[in-house]
Design a protein that fits this description.
Structural class: mainly alpha
Helix content: 55-70%
Distance between the termini: 96 Å
Radius of gyration: 38 Å
Number of helices: 5
Number of strands: 0
Order of helices and strands: HHHHH
Largest sheet: none
Strand content: under 5%
Length: 130
């Protein structure tokens, strides 16, 4: 079992380092060009893989947000400002509010009901539909 482990571990390390090297963007590769790192990992299996993991890639955590980074909408001040601006433009400046519109509708309904009652009392006829 130990013999198999001595063969599988370096192979797994080399495969991991090679795939990581291929998937790493060119901007994050340090010290050597990306194709040279891939060749070093393949030719010098364990030493090349450890070299890639230790020195080949910029492994510092990337700053979230900032220039070009993604920011959640509830953390993005520009998005929140656009919502406030949108809310202001949606509200009518001089238009009637809901209460005024409701009072106008109620007054119109009362006027129509009164007209209907007068017509029914005068001739018993149903009003003509417009």
């Amino acid at each position: 079992m130990l013999r198999a482990l001595l063969f599988i571990l370096p192979l797994a390390l080399m495969i991991y380092a090679f795939i990581d090297c291929l998937n790493t963007p060119e901007e994050e590769v340090k010290h050597l060009p990306k194709p040279v790192w891939a060749i070093v990992v393949l030719l010098f299996s364990v030493v090349g893989a450890i070299g890639w993991i230790v020195a080949g890639k910029d492994r510092r955590p990337q700053a979230r947000g900032g220039a070009g980074g993604w920011v959640a909408p509830d953390d993005n001040p520009e998005f929140l400002k656009s919502l406030r601006d949108e809310k202001r433009t949606d509200a009518p400046a001089d238009g009637p509010d809901d209460e005024t519109a409701l009072k106008d509708w109620e007054a119109d309904l009362r006027r129509r009901e009164e007209e209907l009652r007068k017509r029914e009392q005068d001739g018993g006829e149903a009003p003509e539909k417009p």
